[in-house]
Amino acid sequence: MLKVISFTICPFVQRVTALLEAKGFPYEIEYISLKDKPQWFLDLSPNGQVPVLITESGQALFESDAIVEYIEDAYGPLNSSLTPEQKAVNRAWSYLAAKNYLVQCSAQRSGDEVTLNERSVKLAKAFASIEKELGNARFFNTNEVGMVDIAWLPLLHRAALIERHAGYDFLAGYPKLKRWQQHLLFTGLAEKSVATDFEEAFTGFYLSDQTFLGNRNCQVSAPANNTCATDSCC
Ligand SMILES: N[C@@H](CCC(=O)N[C@@H](CS)C(=O)NCC(=O)O)C(=O)O
């Protein structure tokens, strides 16, 4: 069976697990701590990063781009009717998403509004670019989930969580992206591709009292008498 080495809130891992879920493949998953990487993991992962995929023959693969391309090559593409040109276009749009995973992580961790705005500039450019590409289909230019949808899922899933918990919408002003986000979330792939404690771990890290979005969360959820519901709030 395929095995994925993971860290709970890693978007690069979610891209891989979302693809496996979309294909309906069984896989094992093992979570590690990135603060204290086990030696067996360092022996397997040349870049010291997750995701690592262990293939059925025991080969360890690293780099999420290489891993998703391997899954497509080895087990058949999500969408088999694409021309080489369409595949290349889809890969390029997928790479753009992955290049913005850490940008989004960093924006979410901003300590104040000015930093959040600065760190969101690159992400907003990517959102504006893909907004222009989106048509009337449910997913990326088709009504079936494809590789571009899988690559953008971690960004859109996280944006939805931030909106729900902190009332801040990274997608404000991008109506087609918002529609795409809704269609993708409706597939259930977002929840299926993360651990059951993902939302708690994600909000604990990105919406803590050390982040602008976390403190905004306090303002959004603070009761009328201005006392906070939890000790960690405000
Ligand atoms: N280019 C890599 C990036 C993966 C990555 O940045 N993973 C992060 C977690 S989200 C990681 O393992 N960080 C630990 C480290 O860099 O030491 C990929 O696409 O797989």
UniProtKB/TrEMBL annotation:
Matching entries from Pfam families are given as: GST_C_2 (PF13410), GST_N_2 (PF13409)
Annotated GST C-terminal domain ranges read 83-205
Spell out the GO cellular component terms annotated for this protein, sorted alphabetically and separated by semicolons: cytoplasm
Domain annotation GST N-terminal: ranges: 1-79
Q: According to the lineage, what is the superkingdom?
A: Bacteria
Q: What is this protein called?
A: Glutathione S-transferase family protein
Biological source species: Pontibacterium sinense
